[in-house]
Specification:
Strand content: 25-35%
CATH architecture of one domain: 3-Layer(aba) Sandwich
Largest sheet: 6 strands, mixed
Shape: globular
CATH class of one domain: Alpha Beta
Radius of gyration: 17 Å
CATH superfamily of one domain: P-loop containing nucleotide triphosphate hydrolases
Number of helices: 7
Order of helices and strands: EEEHEEHEHHHEHEHEE
């Protein structure tokens, strides 16, 4: 990672609460985090610590109650809902524990879908999808449907979908949670490889061993970072 590079993702003193008065719950409390191009950051913490809320706010799926979120230097608060939807299609890739693949589409069609929704011609989108699948070692599985793939293969398809095109940021919520230890490490290694190609990634994980694949580990507790973010020896 080039330390002089502008951060791909910046959370600046972000807080998020739900409800009011006695029912008010603070999910994130004054959290600041930056992630640069080529960097993988693992987020750890107990259940209810705010990890998923951090991802949804970073991915523009909800707005913070306070603070600022920037992607590639652009404040998300300045974007309309339509602009945020375009940003998610073109810039942000999401990876979920349960894969979220469409069962009626092949692997290549699942990966090409966000490109086609963003206006890319179908033939070009399918070609880029096959290239993305090849980087995941799935070039021979491009025409298979999700129920014809193993869990590890399905998650690699999901990662290919998250990084296809000009995506700058990948947000992964327990991407290895439904996998055995061998496939879990393979999936984390694929996200790590995407970072080597220039993507920034934030990965929520409960597995200390898998977190060692990240450049940094940050820990949330009760909506706050346990300590100022710091570089870890990796």
């Amino acid at each position: 990672m080039n330390p002089a590079a502008a951060p791909t993702l910046e959370l600046v003193r972000v807080s998020r609460h739900y409800g009011e008065g006695a029912l008010r719950v603070l999910a994130l409390d004054d959290v600041s985090l930056s992630v640069s191009r080529g960097e993988m950051v693992a987020v750890m913490g107990p259940s209810g610590s705010g990890k998923s809320t951090l991802l949804t706010i970073a991915g523009s799926l909800e707005r913070p109650s306070a603070g600022e979120v920037r992607i590639d230097g652009v404040a998300l608060a300045d974007r309309s809902r339509a602009e945020l939807a375009r940003l998610r299609r073109s810039t942000i890739g999401f990876v979920f524990q349960d894969f979220n693949l469409l069962p009626g589409l092949s692997a290549a069609e699942n990966v090409s879908l966000p490109l086609e929704l963003d206006g890319l011609a179908a033939r070009r989108a399918r070609a880029e999808a096959r290239e993305a699948l090849a980087t995941m070692g799935l070039e021979t599985k491009a025409d298979r449907f999700p129920d014809e793939l193993s869990g590890g293969e399905r998650q690699r398809v999901a990662i290919a979908r998250a990084v296809v095109g000009e995506r700058h940021l990948v947000l992964a919520d327990e991407p290895s949670g439904a996998l055995d230890s061998h496939n879990a490490e393979a999936v984390m290694s694929q996200i790590r490889a995407a970072c080597h190609r220039g993507v920034a990634a934030v990965v929520v994980t409960h597995d200390e061993h898998l977190a060692l694949l990240a450049d940094r580990v940050v820990r949330l507790r009760d909506g706050r970072l346990d300590a100022p973010e710091r570089a870890e020896a990796r």
